[in-house]
What we know:
- The protein is mostly helical.
- 51% of the residues lie in helices and 11% in strands.
- The strands form 2 sheets. Strands 1-2 form a two-stranded antiparallel ribbon. The chain has a two-stranded parallel sheet with strand order 3-4.
- A hairpin with a 5-residue loop joins strand 1 and strand 2 (49-55).
Amino acid sequence: MAFASLRLLATLLLLTLLPLLLLLGLGTMLSMGRPVLFRQRRAGREGRDFTLLKLRSMREATGPDGQPLPDEARVTAFGRFLRRSRLDELPGLWNVAAGDMTFVGPRPLLPETIAGLGPRGAARGRVRPGLTGWSQVNGNTLLSLDEKIALDLWYVENASPLLDLRIVALTLWVMVGGERRSREVALAD
């Protein structure tokens, strides 16, 4: 599917899912306060920066030293629900509609993370980042950064419409069944 068609599809999905987004935004506001959206600079295709949008899943809380508390201490019950169901990613449809992302591709990382990866970061940036990707359906938070990068680079080299459809189907499975390390992790190394 042409990228312009994917952008139009993302726009239509945003409009269709607006009632759900408003409901999830209200839940976020009631459980964590404002802001409802999490915004962060990320590296896109060819390393170009853009602002990633997600529903917020963590409270802003710091320790006595002024440093943010660990994620586990800041994630609320509603935030855990958003993360597990992947519904926190729905505002990313805006990033797809804007042309910064696509539906399937490596998840966008921080610019400094990409820079620190050197040639692997540059290779990963040959494709547009996605709402979901090969490393997300093969373990995601259960994987090390090196394992994620290996899976992302495998995807960059093997991307196809059929693989993208497989990743979308596996994403739905992960949304329902939760994350699991797959055997693909060992194959990508």
